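note to self: dont lose this again. the chain is below, predicted strucutre after it. 147 aa total, dont forget to put it in the shared folder this time
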Amino acid sequence: MNVRLHSPRRSHQSGFTLLEIMVVVIILGVLAATIIPQFMGSTTEAKVSAAKAHVAELEAAVERYYIHMDRYPTQEEGLTILEKAPSNDASKWRGPYIKQLRKDPWNHPYQYRRPGTHHPTSFDIWSQGADGADGGEGDNADIGNWQ
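---
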């Protein structure tokens, strides 16, 4: 009986070739190039939605202030009056009307105008958008209580 034992060595080594690795990297690059811009757009949309919600919250707080004080905050008082009682008329004040006066999603302060340009008998509250300046289009458009 003649039995031959083969050695466990292989003559062919397994693994990926450089060409296969390059093809996979190219495919991943193409997928990333098509998917990442979609997420960038959703970030902008989320900031716009957050700014709209903040403007609505500030508008409601100013209206509550009006109910208690029988007047809107002056231009000089601005939105800070929603956090701290006025020194001249603190007896009517029932605030704070907001927990914290925060900045808009682009890290700019919210704007307040009394009387308003869009609401001449009351007030305007707005975010100046991504550019931090009045007016603009697209990401730079103002987001206000008149929209």
